[in-house]
Amino acid sequence: MQDQDVIREFLVESHENLSRLDQELVELEKRPKDAQLLASIFRTIHTIKGTCGFLAFSTLERITHQAESLLSQLRDGRRKLTPSLISLILDTVDATRKVLASIEASGEEGQERFEGIAERLRIAAQMPPDGESEPGAGLTPASRADHEVETASPEIGEGAKGEETGLKSSAVADANIRVGVGLLDKLMDLVGELVLTRNQILQFNTEREDAALNATSQRLNLITTELQEGVMKTRMQPIGMVWNKLPRVVRDMAVALGKQIRLEMDGANTELDRTIIEAIKDPLVHLVRNSCGHGIERPEVRINAGKPPYGRLTLRAYHEGGQVNIEISDDGAGVDVAQVKQKVVEKGLLRPEQAEKLSDREAVNLIFQPGFSTAQTVTNVSGRGVGMDVVKSNIEKIGGIVDICNRPGEGSTVRLKIPLTLAIIPGLVITSGGERFVIPQVSLLELIRLERDSSEKHIEQVHGTPVYRRRGSLLPIAYLNQVLGLKLAEQAEAISIVVLQAEDRQFGLVVDGINDTQEIVVKPLGKQFKGLTEYAGATIMGDGRVALILDVLGIGQRSGVLAESREQARAAAEKKTHGGIEEQRLLLFRAGSFERLAVPLSLVARLEEIPRSSIEFAGGCQVVQYRNRILPLVPLRDVLESGVADRDETADPVQVIVFNDGDRSVGVVVDQILDVVEESIMMRQKSTRKGLLGSAVVAKRVTDLLDLNEVIHAANESWFQGAGGTGNGKAVLVAEGSAFSRGLVRGGLDMAGYRVVEAANLDEAIREMEQQPADVVVAAMDLPPKGSSALLAAMRARPEWERIPLLGLADSAGQLQSSEARTAGSEDCQAKFDSNAIIESVSRLASEQASAKTAPVCAGEEK
Amino acid sequence: MATDTAIVKPEAAQNSGQLSTFFVADLFFGVDVLRVQEVLRFQQMTHVPRAPDVIEGLINLRGQIVTAIDLRRR
Question: Would the CB atoms of A532 and B47 count as touching at under 8 Å?
Fold first, then answer.
């Protein structure tokens, strides 16, 4: 198949060239001194000769070769051009035509050898090139006739056949015309307009009942569809156009790498839109190079593995469901999953325990990460660390999908799924906030409709992100109205979720209404919209108005449902199943005999390495000059293991964790920073040891949680000077679900002189209050089971607790900012880890509360 | 957008050229008439959420999508 295509193209091209030769030769006769013209003729003949040699058409090659040498003499000015020479060349052209006709008819050159022509050309070329004598002397008409007589019989014998096939030959030439790409693009644009107009007419038709109009519009519909397909086909090119250059690439690679590779191609006729052909050209070459470079092993390795020494690289292309699938498979070693994992950790793309958790399939897909390359050595053929990620992004840019199927030891297959065309795509029309939008159907997975009452049950909040529980897995939800800042629709009786695929993630987009699907013509947006990632373009709808096409990836990123990594999504799902145990990022480190210590990363300002030589002493404490200030240092092992004599003072530089608090900073000296992990912490064991909150299992190992307040306090009394000593034994109830955060808050309050009672949930808090009412209640906003508002409501419901102020604790400063937290009805609100602010707040509330007891103006009613 | 189109000839003879002039609020503007493709009456536009303020919307001009800019906000 491949060969015949090549020959076909050769025929078309040669016919064109020969026609041009005819013209040019005639022209040359008029202007024999025109060097440019001569050069052009020479080039044309040369081209034909070259192709003939490539396709092994020996007769043609011989004739054209002779003609070429003659022409080269003419070109170099070694011979004067005479009409007889022109005729000779024209005869050559005719002979070439005959051979081409024969090739077209039978695929072979035919029996005729055209010895006469060849001989005459040879003689002409060997004639002494003396300008004075008649150069064409040996080629007088008489002698020409002689030659012709000699060779007459075969030529005539062929002539009859030639005429017959000559007709056919022109059939090939006539059946193909070269059309400029610009014209085709223009046609495509016009068809796009027609499709739009057709849509408008169809819509118009549905609005009125007119039989004639109905029939006409049906017909218009049909014709337009056919025209659209037809024009689309004119822009289709076989994928073989791209594949053609691959054998060479593979051969060069194989030679360079000392490998033996056989390239097999299947489905080279599969047609694709030329814009897409353009777009996949480079990715394909990349993938093939990759297979040669990484996939197929050296012959000796292959023989050891019991495989044939030559590797097989197969390209397959086929149509499937309106898409084109392209597969690049090799029978090499496949992707080494362990090596991939090791590499991503080395490159710092993932943390070791993240890599460990990955399934083989996920790990294999890591090779599409930017900056990844498993090649051990950087060579000129592979291993520059760019490539696969570019492949992926290029394919995705045109709406395609890249997937890799790995068979360790047996090879790997990269599968590309690519749309047939980009210009006209099916899309789903939706409405939101009174506007219409189109979602490309490629990214559409399913539509979900939830009745209003059940929607509240089905859409849950995880990590502050709404999720929908779909067939046992959690689907993050984004609201289109929110993403685009549109006005919210009034409460409908049902909500519609469009489930979309963005890269390898899925998410649900809540829209106000789903209309229908339509073929739309994608038009680019102007440059004014450059920064808007939400839209992929615009289109004109049936009613003539413009509708925006949503960019699914952009919407996903904008809404934040794709921002969190897969890791987090999974952790969030786990967290949900564990029943609301708090999740935190922890910094793990080692100090003294404590192999694993942890502190919440949110408390850590910086990690520093400080050379031992720069540590100074001030007021009996170790300090260091840090950003133009004096940073007190707390050697952690001294606090935790006071009295241990053999200090290891050799570590240089020392590792310091810097904690910030307002304008004060303190550095805690540890032995080694281990890792940062994200885990839900469940306090397993409370600690009685000074400086520790307790133990928990973090990253599968028992870890001690550092009581930061106490550590700092123990080492540096002045640290808490501002806040210390204001408690005067007042009772504070700390209601907080997480034992860890509770411990932190308690630590601070304890030191400030408050009597602290702890409660882990609402019931416990009420029980504690019943035993002994507190002066101030500190409650986490997310206090189990229903948040601090439930506790507040319970307190406000009882006259004896009504006046007790409540301090809300927000998870983060960000949540603190949100108005929701502010208006939750509590007297004040602070971030969980802002120990100083909490203590300050508590002390203020406690004193206000004390004065409220005498004067009935209470802080709680100020709002 | 108050659009009032009139063609005036500037006095300066050597720099003479035709301008399409219009008012935006109380300001009088002119633009080289050769750069003006056509003048349209107001028509329904498609609002582009999250787009810069100056962009009023998109209009369908015989199958071409044209961005409409509000000169007042510009």
Answer: no
